[in-house]
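F.,

This is the one I mentioned.
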């Protein structure tokens, strides 16, 4: 059985989430993305998780009050105690015929914690489909690049 987990969360954006011009605050989108990443990671690890890192969060299109936002979070790569969750955001204007637009993609590193709040070992991920294998390889490559940058900083 494949333990990769995907979570889909959707929400209509409300006036309380926006500035006076109707633009939804970036922090509101980031919070929804973090919640989706946390849910996917928690489901996979079967324990509490925390966000350790967010890579490459770019806002490609604005989001407005009334837009329907869908976050899809997928556990793509798993290390010993941490996992990378790819989160995409699609936005749809429910009053138009336009298809949803991909407005963000980000890579969340989530760490599994035991009951004492210490990093906890989690089961390895065994990608099965070609798409899963590609996500896993890309996640592994990003991890190697982060480790290389960390080593250069500490040298």
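My design for it:
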């Amino acid at each position: 059985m494949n333990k990769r987990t995907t979570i889909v969360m959707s929400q209509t954006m409300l006036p309380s989430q926006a500035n006076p011009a109707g633009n939804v605050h970036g922090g509101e989108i980031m919070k929804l993305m973090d919640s989706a990443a946390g849910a996917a990671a928690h489901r996979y690890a079967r324990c509490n998780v925390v966000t350790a890192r967010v890579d490459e969060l770019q806002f490609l299109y604005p989001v407005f009050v009334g837009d329907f936002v869908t976050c899809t979070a997928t556990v793509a790569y798993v290390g010993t105690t941490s996992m990378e969750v790819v989160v995409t955001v699609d936005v749809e204007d429910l009053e138009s015929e336009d298809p949803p637009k991909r407005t963000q993609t980000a890579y969340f590193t989530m760490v599994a914690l035991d009951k004492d709040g210490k990093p906890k070992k989690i089961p390895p991920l065994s990608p099965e489909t070609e798409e899963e294998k590609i996500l896993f390889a890309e996640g592994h490559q990003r991890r190697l690049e982060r480790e290389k940058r960390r080593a250069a900083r500490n040298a």
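The radius of gyration is 17 Å.

Talk soon.
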